[in-house]
Amino acid sequence: MATCVLPGGSTLNYRIDFAGAEAPWVVFGNSLMTDLTIWDDQVAALAGRFNMLRYDQRGHGASALPPSTLNFEQLGQDLLAVIDAAAVTRCSYVGLSMGVPTGLAGYAARPHAFARLVLVDGQARSAASGQAFWDERIAFAREQGMGPLAEQTVRRWLRPSRHGLPMADRLGAMIAATPSAGFIACAGVLRSYDLSAVLDRIDVPVRLVAGAEDGIMPATMAAMKDAIAGATFATIEDAGHIPNFERPEAFNVILEQALLAEPEDRP
Question: Is 230 helix (H, G, I), strand (E, B) or coil?
Fold first, then answer.
């Protein structure tokens, strides 16, 4: 583990799994209420072939708590700061849920840093119902704490057949360990944002992926695909909001295809 010091003195926790000076870089951005270990199965699958950088977004894992208010411009700058701290000049970026708009914000600020984007179960702008939804979640966390919120979230994110399994226990523990202040600040960012203007400016390969059972997310991401020149989209059956964690074998096949595809392979 290593620490990236941000302007103003705040810190981000990150980890590098190094394969060699000639290996390409992959950078992973985690979702709300998870930490960098959400990518463990992907790191294991890609080990020895890619240099991999994972980090905890603000207020998550071992990263410092954020200020009371945040926006995706700041979270995008955080992504660029940790890339710089690791001396990564160009990378493939893989973002999950909140990691999707984080990556879009980072791309908007420094497009030449990204060779490709893999965007997983996230969206470019908040849904019309987003403010009410996140206001309710924030109020619940303040009143009940992260433990009860973790129980609800596990039931929502994972398919029913996986409830009660060790995977569900691990996810619940990860969510419950998220500082409430970190959750509240980042959930506040998700209430209302719009990075959709970035989509038609993207000129690198983009692969969008969604769990087939993640509500309206597959339809949302299919619409995003249509807004990005040459983008491709895939769903993962029997998976909800975090398919890389819930069905890692199926997800890893899609991820490796995306990482190994050459730009000229785009349709």
Answer: coil
- Structural domains present in the chain: 2-125+195-265 (3.40.50.1820)
Q: Which residue has the tokens 């965007």?
A: 119
Q: How far, in Å, CA of 256 to CA of 45, rounded?
A: 9
Q: How far apart are CA 66 and CA 45, in angstroms?
A: 32
Strands (E), 140-250: 206-211, 232-236
What is the H or E stretch that residue 182 is in? helix 180-191
pLDDT tens across 185-208, in order? 999 999 999 999 999 999 999 999
The tokens describing 142, both together, are 């303040």
83: tokens are 């890339």
Q: How far is CA 84 from CA 55, 87, 218, in A?
A: 13, 5, 33
Is this model's pTM higher than 0.90 or not? Answer: yes
